[in-house]
Amino acid sequence: MVANEVLELGGGLSLTVSFPPASVDRPKREEKGKSLLDLAESFVVLDFETTGLDPMYDEIIEIGAIRVVAGKAENEYTTLIKPKSPIGSFITDLTGITNDMVKDAPVIESALPGLLEFIGNDVVVGHNTHFDINFLYDCCVKYLKIPFTNNLIDTMRIARNAFKDADGYRLADMADYFKVESKPKHRAINDCRCTLDVYNHMCAYFRENNIDLVALNKLNARGASAKDINTAVTEFDESHPLYGKICVFTGTLDKMLRKDAMQIVVDLGGKCADNVTKKTNYLILGVTDYNKSKSGKSNKHVKAETFQLSGLDIEIISENVFYDIVMYDK
Predict the structure, then answer these.
(1) What is the pTM of this model?
(2) What's the pLDDT at 330?
(3) 316 neighbors 289 (Cβ within 8 angstroms)
(4) Which of 25, 50, 159, 288 has the fewest beta carbons under 10 Å from its own?
(5) Most confidently predicted of 15-29, 58-72, 244-258
(6) Of 127, 130, 186, 301, which one is the catalytic site residue?
(7) Are strands 315-318 and 282-285 parallel, antiparallel or unpaired?
(8) What gap in Å lies between CA 298 and CA 282, rounded to an integer?
(9) Which one has a higher pLDDT value, 312 or 161?
(10) Is the separation of the CB atoms in 269 and 237 below 8 Å?
């Protein structure tokens, strides 16, 4: 049995996710590329349309990609994909993609080699691109027996860092914010074009104002304080693994701002703190800190290990494991 739940992610965003049985092993994606805060000149914009949000249960039904070289769109790659299960009416209503449209389309295992050849070793740019990359990574492992390791640039992550006055951070919100002509329509190549327009406007803004994205991200991370995070949620799922748990974050998160991650915790009925104490249940390490943990550890990390060895109920987990707990464990 798969249950659905709506998670409020802050900034007017919500996400409906599927929770599989606890016994199901989630993919680790240990070789997934890094999320970069960068102004790339050459890259590939990528977008998928899918039958749902969970790569374990849902399928890709359309691929869109645009190759950009030296700041200029060079060529496009797009194809419908025939899923193994029928497309539901909700997805057809959302995207306009029908079962009749995909009946003669290639299956994903046939389309993957052409897509990977088109992408090459380039950085992938997308809006909330971790969603698309997770689908691509899992398909590559399942059908080609190789991981997808290209680095990525997430325009949603950049937007959350830099454009605090935006009404929201969906692709449609950012298209309105920058007043770009193209609008997202839940069709892959169209949404690639919109993402490219938004990214170009972002890059122009940062260059004109001499903004360092890495420094901006660190400033935002330092500015997050647990005492400032509150929730408007009044009813909680008390069976959720984060309900009633005290979480502490350390290091720079890869996928979102620390304050947004803390907001997720409190919206699920958990609590956040800025320092590790004997009451801490989870210490969440940013990806970079987790990767460096074998050679050098933060004070919070060392303190948590000390408490752990003394028998206290504290777990030290990576940012990726944190997202797995948030989105999948039930």
Answers:
(1) 0.69
(2) 45
(3) no
(4) 25
(5) 58-72
(6) 186
(7) parallel
(8) 15
(9) 312
(10) yes
DSSP 8-state secondary structure symbol assigned to residue 121 = T
| 330/162 Cα distance (integer angstroms) | 34
The Cα 33–Cα 152 span in angstroms is 7
As a whole number of Å, the end-to-end CA separation of the chain is 11
Residues 77 and 159: beta-carbon distance below 8 Å = no
Domain 25-214 has CATH 1.10.150.530: no
**Domain assignments of the chain as residue spans, ordered by start:** 25-214, 224-327
Between CA 86 and CA 254 the distance in angstroms is 35
Which residue shows structure tokens 């990806």?
287
186 part of the active site: yes
- Confidence (pLDDT) at 11: 43
Higher pLDDT, 285 or 294: 285
> Hey, which CATH number is domain 224-327, 1.25.40.10, 3.40.50.10190, 3.40.50.720, 3.40.50.300?
3.40.50.10190
Do residues 172 and 47 touch, judged by C-beta distance below 8 A? no
Beta-carbon contacts of residue 148 (< 8 Å; ≥ 6 apart): 32, 33, 116, 133, 136, 137, 140
The count of other CB atoms within 10 Å of the CB of residue 80 is: 19
CB 64 within 8 A of CB 111: no
Structure-token pair, residue 278: 């004997």
Q: What Cα–Cα distance (Å) separates residue 147 from each residue in 6, 142, 155?
A: 30, 9, 23
DSSP secondary structure letter of residue 35 = B
Topology match between the domains 25-214 and 224-327: no
Cβ 151 vs Cβ 33: under 8 Å: yes
* pLDDT at residue number 291: 47
Pairing, β 315-318 against β 72-80: unpaired
- Give whole-number Cα distances, 115 to 196, 244, 318, in Å: 18, 44, 30
| C-alpha 252, offset from chain centre | 15
Q: How far apart are CA 254 and CA 287, in angstroms?
A: 6
Residue 221 pLDDT? 62
